[in-house]
């Protein structure tokens, strides 16, 4: 996404003849048209960001007034076992969901590629999870995860001869169960973007490969996959960022339980901020999450550049 | 031999290939729509506990939807529609205005504005949830408290970088000649904007409309922070409180979940072409 935008932004617009009498009016008009957006961004994005940074250095108290504590809030986070566990769960969930969705998405995209009419139907149907409301879908999955023998998913795995699982109810499987639902919702999105990437692969290369007698696997390995590399990295970055900041899924499915086994950063921050009223520590948690996101983006960009050169 | 796809599956002939295709595609459709179909079916059946969630219709009944009314589900639905209605209107207006400046004007500081927009997209909204609640409780300079107001749920979604960028890209394509002809005829800035540029961007309006709708409809943390009274809850955040009911079991929850899902699914199906276009023009939710 970023690359498309910057590329388009970089191409200079064709020279315009402008009525000379309004030379000063152009910029003024532009700023007036931009004003609503800038004002809203200022109030609801930039100021909160700065407030978060600022408050993370205080012990925030509603009536007693804020007390400067320097980096104490950050120290609390780093030394707190709950936070360490939450960071670990967030990373596991983000990576698992990202990789699962990418692999499945790519596989399904390859299976479903083609111009046939019925494929369009399959694509549309498979895409539905992406547009659905997270909270509602999570409630449905929570019901399907019902741990009794006749819970829906247990019945389904029963057909394959697998024993009933406790799913969300067990410390050992809660995080994996959330991941399963996230992959279900993330796969069709990745699949659709891969499909768009597949359309762009040069068909003459396939023909050339066939003339040379290359197998399907070699064609895939040497033509299709390299062509999809940029798409892959974009999807990876986006999904990983999304995974790190996951909230609704966990909040609805387990709310971090049982016994904190699925607590992620955002659910912990939410609890600290709105239930325990530790706004300073919660703000610091937000900043840590921000830094993690930033680091991830930079690392992926660097890896990508290294691979490209 | 044809080369329509990487695997060339379509060109495989014979009953075995056809059967394999049928099984694979069938499984795909079932896996991804199964939970949604299950919800649709179960919401209209007698569903007493989680184990009666089913793909096979039982006794058809509207009881769940009747009970839903007693649990204020339709009020929550109305709240959702109020927020999404005003929110989307605001978001689209703001986007179209901002895009006009970014696509059709040249001014100092444009690069900075572009970078700021991209920054807002890279910045996950969850990260600022806590400080946002503090800002909403006491807006700097204006000293308004938006907690517990509809404006508190609407204004923060008013500006969305994604919409602005999609709109900007599209507006760049409108030929300059049209604008200049109108200018020579003496048309003012607003007139050119409203009668020439915006009508020519109708397809892009569809794109930002459908994305904006699903984005606002799916908001969770924001209403959770803002709607302190249950009478202001939107449907997604109300679901949690409907989980168990002694008289009708999970029926109300299922009915409410279905009502929460349908609008975005309908919006998607109705504006599918625009949705895919937004998705593949390098556009990404964020």
Key structural traits:
A: 309 residues; mainly alpha; MetI-like fold; 2 strands; B: 286 residues; 2 domains; globular
What does this structure look like?
The complex is a heterodimer of chains A (309) and B (286). Chain A is mainly α. Chain A has a single domain (72-308), classed as MetI-like (MetI-like fold), CATH 1.10.3720. Chain A is 73% helix and 1% strand. In chain A, strands 1-2 form a two-stranded antiparallel ribbon. In chain A, strand 1 (58-59) and strand 2 (67-68) form a beta hairpin. Chain B folds into two domains: 9-65, no CATH class; 71-280, MetI-like (MetI-like fold, Orthogonal Bundle). Chain B is 64% helix and 0% strand. In chain B, helix 7 (161-171) runs antiparallel to helix 10 (202-217). The longest helix of chain B has 32 residues, at 73-104. The radius of gyration of chain B is 24 Å and the shape is globular. The model of chain B has no long low-confidence stretch (mean pLDDT 86). Classes of the chains: A mainly alpha (309), B mainly alpha (286). The interface between A and B is large, with 112 and 107 residues.
**Cα gyration radius of chain B (Å):** 24 Å
Give the strand content of chain B.
under 5%
Could you name the CATH class of chain A?
A: Mainly Alpha
Structural class computed from helices and strand pairing of chain B: mainly alpha
* Number of separate helices of chain A: 13
Oligomer: heterodimer
The percent range for helix content of chain A is over 70%
The helix fraction of chain B, in percent, is 55-70%
Q: What structural class results from the helix and strand content of chain A? A: mainly alpha
Taking the sheet with the most strands of chain A, its summary is: 2 strands, antiparallel
Note the overall shape of chain B: globular
Number of domains of chain B: 2
- List unreliable stretches of 5+ residues of chain A: 1-15, 18-22
Q: Widest sheet of chain A: strand order?
A: 1-2
